[in-house]
Recover the amino acids of this structure.
């Protein structure tokens, strides 16, 4: 949000004429990158909130199990993407439960 407030551009045109909306390395951050990471955090939080508040209200056991599995997989995938982005941007290695490397 700080980058968006201080007037950071959402994207820029690279040397080959393509739009660049994700800066490589630790040099900085574009506005679109902030929006995407913020959306990732919101999606991760909403999958966990759905898992704790919506799933217990489902009466059919089969549907409850399928929805639970789907939400757990979506939250794990989102967490893996957030952590891998952090590792790429900061250069720091981090081992978690979701790290399979």
């Amino acid at each position: 949000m700080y980058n968006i407030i201080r007037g950071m551009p959402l994207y820029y045109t690279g040397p080959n004429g393509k739009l660049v909306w994700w800066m490589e390395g630790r040099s900085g951050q574009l506005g679109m990158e902030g929006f995407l990471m913020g959306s990732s955090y919101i999606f991760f939080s909403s999958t966990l909130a759905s898992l704790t508040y919506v799933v217990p209200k489902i009466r059919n056991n089969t549907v409850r199990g399928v929805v639970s599995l789907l939400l757990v997989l979506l939250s794990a995938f989102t967490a893996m993407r957030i952590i891998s982005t952090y590792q790429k941007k900061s250069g720091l290695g981090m081992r978690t439960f979701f790290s399979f490397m």
About this structure: The helical segments are 2-5, 31-53, 61-90. The mean pLDDT is 81. Residues 61-90 form the longest helix (30 residues).
